[in-house]
Each structure stands twice: as structure tokens, then as C-alpha cells.
Amino acid sequence: MSILDKIVSRKKEEVEANKKSLPVSRLESTSHFKRSPLSFKKALTRRGASGIIAEFKRRSPSKGLLNGHADVIATASAYELAGASALSVLTDVDFFGGSNENLEKARAAVTIPILRKDFIIDEYQLLEAKAIGADVILLIAAILSVHETEKLARFARSLGLEVLLEVHNEQELGHINHFVDVVGINNRNLNDFSTDVQTSFRLGELLPASAVKISESAISQPAVIVQLKEAGFRGFLIGETFMKEADPGKACEEFIKAVNTL
Ligand SMILES: O=C(O)c1ccccc1NCC(=O)[C@H](O)[C@H](O)COP(=O)(O)O
After folding, report:
1. Where is each Indole-3-glycerol phosphate synthase domain found (predicted)?
2. Binding site membership of 186 for ligand 1 (Cβ less than 6 Å)
């Protein structure tokens, strides 16, 4: 079984358990549920935006523990102060050491949009995303059919959430539909963990000029941001480069400063 299959299999169990312990009526009664989400797309395309989407990721299947000490509130605040356009918060518990609570804490600490980074396979998770204060959700083409992608994207939009669709190869471009706000090209092959930033350049050329596209994973050099911007990318999702440092907020600040000097 590939790691992606393992994650999805565990996710199905987790979602069924959550449906029982926290029914939809409880999700719908939260204060976040009544809030109007912020626009991720606007935050990335605003004039002068850094486009950096700074991620809070404690550990990952590919690298193990990245940072056991960073505090989510301090890190989220520091990312925003450093000039990040948006945050990404892992909420998967078993494989990434994340939690819904982390996203709620980040929500209370920042005013920029927050991406719920998880493996979404069920509409319940979209209601949950809204209830914990997310603004945008991730749909991963590699784990969804074209029909499932459209159904989930439509439902997310009906809740006022924006949709980031993640693709990794030419075939997955067929998952794009008109409910998708932003297309993410993941430089990491989620089955074997190999990374190659060229994936963004290759697939980016195949997207219509009107698509708002972001590059995800394995970005560690400020110079790459300049090249990706030249290729029309508006956002850059960065986790490990920041989280592997003792002070992820400082690492983000230095990275954005370095981009601005190029
Ligand atoms: O990060 C992993 O090892 C991973 C493994 C399996 C599925 C997803 C995985 N990561 C999710 C992501 O897409 C990244 O957290 C995100 O793009 C940031 O990547 P990075 O800057 O390389 O931490």
C-alpha cells in the first residue's frame, strides 16, 4: 500500500469517528461557521503580495519530525508579520502531527487567509473546515475522481470557502472545474516522495493564462520564487524550509527579505 493509500484509508476511519463525536449540527453552531471567509485568491493576487503561503507542519511522512517545539500561535503571528500572504495549517493528526485545534489557534492569531491542509474525501470535512475558521480548502486530484472533485468543490463554494485544487501530472489537469479558485502544482510525488520544481514549470505552461496558479513543496531557494513569478505563479507554498528551523517565523522573514533583494 502506498503512503497516500494509507493516509486515505486512515482518513476514512477518522471522518466516520468525527461524524459521531461531533455531529454536523454542532459544527454549524460554532461562531466561525457564521463568519465570512477571507479570499485566498485575492490575498495572492493583490499588488505587492509576497505570494508566500507559510505552512505550519510539525512532521511529514517524507521527513519525519520537522519541529517538535514551535508554538502554533507564535509561528502563525510571526509568519504574518514576516509578510506571508496566507497560512497553511496541517490538520491531519496521524501522519503530520497536526490538529484542528492548531488551525483554530492560528485563526485567532492572524488576519490573513488560512488554508486547511488535509486529505479531504468527504463533505463533512468541509463543514469542519468552516467550523474551525479555515478560508480555503485543499482538494488533491490524486485521491479523488473527477466527479468527487467537482462535488466537493461545489459544496465548499456553497459554504463560502475557496478551493485550491492540487495536481501533480498532466492527467490530473482534467480534474479542474469552474468551482476551483486556485490551481496548485505539487512538486512532490505523493506516492514516492520524489521532488522536482520543474513539475511546476512544465504543468504551469499547460494552464490557461487566466488560472491563478501556485507552486507547492520543495521550495528552498529565494531565487526559485523569482523564476516561478516570471512563469506566472502567484503563490508559493513552503513548509519544511521554515519548519525545520528552530524559529520558523524568523526563517520566513529572512526568506521573504532575500526574495525582495533579488
Ligand atoms: O510532506 C510530505 O512528506 C507529504 C507526504 C505525503 C503527502 C503529502 C505530503 N506533504 C503535503 C504537502 O503538500 C506539503 O506539506 C506542502 O506542499 C509544503 O511542502 P514542503 O515545503 O516541501 O514542506
Report:
1. 4-254
2. yes
Question: Any idea where the domains of the chain sit in the sequence?
Answer: 3-261
Tell me the CA–centroid distance for residue 238 and ligand 1, in Å.
9
Across the chain, which distance is largest between two alpha carbons, in Å?
52
In sequence order, the 6+-apart residues with CB closer than 8 A to the CB of 62 are: 188, 193
Residue 44 and residue 234 in contact, taking contact as beta carbons nearer than 8 Å: yes
Query: Which residues neighbour 21 within 8 Å (Cβ) at sequence distance 6 or greater?
Result: none
Ligand 1 center from residue 188 Cα (angstroms):
7
Which of 100, 186, 200, 215 is flagged as catalytic?
186
* pLDDT tens series, the chain, 262 aa: 888 999 999 999 999 999 999 999 999 999 999 999 999 999 999 999 999 999 999 999 989 999 999 999 999 999 999 999 999 999 999 999 999 999 999 999 999 999 999 999 999 999 999 999 999 999 999 999 999 999 999 999 999 999 999 999 999 999 999 999 999 999 998 878 899 999 999 999 999 999 999 999 999 999 999 999 999 999 999 999 999 999 999 999 999 999 999 9
CATH class of 3-261: alpha beta
